[in-house]
């Protein structure tokens, strides 16, 4: 029996999709502070049809953050206009200049640098954040690198063991990966991975931003401390 193909409602943009994605992410035009926490909203709505979801969204959606505003079709159109301006006035000129000056040597150096230099930088950064930071702040916790066979290894860099069967996860990111880490939001895939980790180890996952090997988002230290207490009381 042939498998029923699920209907898709998304518009396909072909080759333009990459540049649209790049610009929207670079200039943070689809973040919750612009369009709301859409996955949370749709789960709250539980729509049976796309029309039901569209109607409910525009009746209930608000931007996340301190300066909340009601999201309308006009506000989404404004975001589209800003996206077009960024692409035509910034992205295209920058890429054209890059294309003109790009050499084969640049391509070789990029691959080599990404594989050797940046990997080593990341390794040192992780070691410093954990060994010189978290391990000294929480001496009773046993920190271990995430084993490659762990299902969540791609999203979890270290495990902080409270006991043999209870641990919280740590993902370490350089501040340069997100210049304003206060606005950083994880993808739906990562949220699912973090939830799977919690199901297995009972602990939450914390994203630690590193600046020159030191913890940049200091509030995460208190959050980890509270998580340790919670796990100890389970």
Task: Give structural notes.
The protein has helices at 16-26, 32-35, 38-45, 50-60, 73-101, 104-137, 188-201, 219-232; strands spanning 142-145, 158-161, 167-174, 202-211, 214-215. By secondary structure, the protein is α+β, with helices and mostly antiparallel strands. The protein folds into two domains: 16-101, no CATH class; 118-232, 3-Layer(aba) Sandwich (Trna Endonuclease, Chain: A, domain 1). Strands 1-2-3-4-5 form a five-stranded mixed sheet. The longest helix is centred in the middle third of the chain and has 34 residues, at 104-137. The model is unreliable at 178-183 (pLDDT under 50).
State the end-to-end distance. 48 Å
Summarize model confidence as the mean pLDDT. Answer: 88
Main sheet record: 5 strands, mixed
Q: Structural class of the helices, strands and pairings?
A: alpha+beta
What is the molecular shape? globular
- Can you tell me the residue ranges where pLDDT is under 50 for at least 5 consecutive residues? 178-183
Radius of gyration: 22 Å
The helix content is: 40-55%
Major sheet strand order: 1-2-3-4-5
Which CATH architecture of the largest domain is right?
A: 3-Layer(aba) Sandwich
How much of the residues is beta strand, in percent? Answer: 5-15%
Number of strands: 5
CATH topology-level fold name of the largest domain? Trna Endonuclease, Chain: A, domain 1
Report the CATH C-level class of the largest domain: Alpha Beta
Number of domains: 2
Instruction: Summarize the helix and strand pattern as letters.
Output: HHHHHHEEEHEEH
Q: How large is the count of helical segments?
A: 8
């Amino acid at each position: 029996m042939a498998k029923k193909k699920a209907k898709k409602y998304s518009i396909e943009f072909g080759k333009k999709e990459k540049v649209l994605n790049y610009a929207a992410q670079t200039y943070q035009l689809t973040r919750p502070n612009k369009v709301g926490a859409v996955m949370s909203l749709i789960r709250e709505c539980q729509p049976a049809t796309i029309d039901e979801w569209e109607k409910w969204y525009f009746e209930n959606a608000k931007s996340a953050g301190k300066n909340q505003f009601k999201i309308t079709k006009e506000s989404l159109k404004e975001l589209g206009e800003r996206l077009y301006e960024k692409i035509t006035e910034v992205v295209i000129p920058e890429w054209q200049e890059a294309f003109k000056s790009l050499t084969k040597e640049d391509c070789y150096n990029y691959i080599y640098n990404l594989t050797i230099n940046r990997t080593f930088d990341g390794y040192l950064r992780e070691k410093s954040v954990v060994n010189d930071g978290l391990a000294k702040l929480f001496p009773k916790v046993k920190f271990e690198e995430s084993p490659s066979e762990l299902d969540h290894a791609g999203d979890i860099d270290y495990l902080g063991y409270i006991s043999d069967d209870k641990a919280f996860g740590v993902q370490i990111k350089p501040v340069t990966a997100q210049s304003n880490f206060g606005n950083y939001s994880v993808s739906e895939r990562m949220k699912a991975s973090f939830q799977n980790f919690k199901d297995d180890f009972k602990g939450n996952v914390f994203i630690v931003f590193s600046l020159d090997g030191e913890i940049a988002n200091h509030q995460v230290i208190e959050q980890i401390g509270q998580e340790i207490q919670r796990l100890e009381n389970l």
